[in-house]
Amino acid sequence: MASDSPQRGALASQINVTPLVDVMLVLLIIFMVTAPIIQQGVEVNLPKVKAQALPGKEEQFIVSITRNREVYLNDTRITTDQLSEKLKAISVERPNRQVFLRADDAVPYGEVVRTMAAIKAAGIEDVGMVTEMPTGNADSAGGGSESRRGSPGP
Q: What percent of the chain has pLDDT over 70?
């Protein structure tokens, strides 16, 4: 009576992957639900203007200016002098990098221009201004709640 079934008491060599698949599907659903909720950057009230969105490139560097005139590079608080130094090091390693500038609507124009000058002093020529679409204009060209408009500099 030779058969292919294992003998009584012998270990089975097959792994049951059903619990693993169940856990992975639950994690996938959790990440799909939470990913849009996560917002990158510092909280600022963006000016509301009509603008076309720029195509995204590789990793983005976002300089934010808060209502209290605090400057952030991505999520790190930084001074304007430190901003120039860090962006200069980045531009040496990877030339032609694009930087997006997010300034609160209440920040004076002079502060925004000084920050843009610090970015330009670092050798970065491609500066994009981040704005928000005005509410109630469904026929606008951007078509989203946040758009980016690029300018070559100050």
A: 65
What is the pTM for the complete model shown? Answer: 0.52
In the DSSP assignment, the letter for residue 35 is T
CATH classification of the domain holding 75: 3.30.420.270
- Give dist(CA 63, CA 94) in Å, integer: 17
Instruction: Note whether 50 and 134 are within 8 A (CB).
Output: yes
Task: With respect to residue 71, please indicate whether it lies within any of the assigned structural domains.
Answer: yes
Sign of the alpha-carbon torsion through 73, 77, 79, 85? negative
Cα 34 to Cα 103: distance, rounded to the nearest angstrom:
26
- Number of neighbouring beta carbons within 10 Å of residue 52: 12
Query: Is 11 within the bounds of a domain?
Result: no
Q: What is the distance between the alpha carbons of residues 102 and 114, in angstroms, rounded to a whole number?
A: 13
DSSP annotation string for 87-147: HHHHHHHSSS-EEEEEE-TTS-HHHHHHHHHHHHHTT--EEEEEEEPPTT-TTSSS-SSEE
Instruction: List, edge to edge, every strand of the sheet that includes 126-132.
Output: 76-78, 71-73, 61-65, 98-103, 126-132, 146-151
The residue with greater pLDDT, 110 or 41, is 110
